[in-house]
Amino acid sequence: MKTFAEIHEMALARKGADGLAAEMPSPPETPLRDLSDDRLLAEFTKRIFQAGFNWSVIEKKWPGFEAAFHGFDIARNAMMSDEDLDRHLKNTDIVRNAAKILTVRDNAVFLSDLAREHGSAARFIGDWPVEDTVGLFEFLKKRGSRLGGATCQYGLRFLGYDAFILSKSVVAALNMAGVIDGAATSKTAMRKVQDAFNTWHAESGLPYASISRTLACSVPD
């Protein structure tokens, strides 16, 4: 397996020092554990609706989503009724996809359960050790609604969790580095990915998100 220093040199050769620095994610203004749980529901919902859709459309409509779903109040959305669903399906201020709309209810229930179990869903997720990020991915996929794959990974990143994202570029870089051979989909492959990130973090001291972006920059776009 390549060292992080080797991968970093490859990224520098492609992007230059200034270009690579510009690619690094900024630290969150508010730590995930200190967010209110409605912001988790909002962010997960945004990523669910963006999946397979034009992201800019969702961004433009987002004020309509916030209004339609009562600021993503957990208790209110956990009680979504058939009448509420019918109203949402007639609301042109949002994307009217019934299956995705129902994830707002289902994930409100999920986050409400976490809050009851741990005091705060945001604190529970925010305190999950980054050394077991793949465990968090699996947990959210199992207990949440449509919170697998890239939806989960981007949601966590935008919430401020120090997660890696298995984009096409990152997966290509992981293959180039000798971590995996092919897709990062099996549990065995995901564990190899986690072990590699843990090793590179110990080597570099960098956040996992920065290591992820460096990997993406080390291979052709």
The general outline is elongated
DSSP strand count: 0
Strand content: under 5%
* Main β-sheet description: none
Describe this structure in words.
By secondary structure, this protein is an all-alpha fold. It is built from 12 helices and no strands.
Task: Give the topology, please.
Elements: H1 4-23, H2 37-50, H3 55-68, H4 74-78, H5 82-89, H6 98-118, H7 121-126, H8 133-143, H9 149-159, H10 168-176, H11 187-204, H12 208-217
Helix pairs in contact: 1-12, 2-3, 2-6, 2-9, 10-12
Task: Based on the model shown, name its key terms.
221 residues, 12 helices, 67% helix, elongated
Entry summary:
With about 220 residues, the protein is mainly alpha-helical.
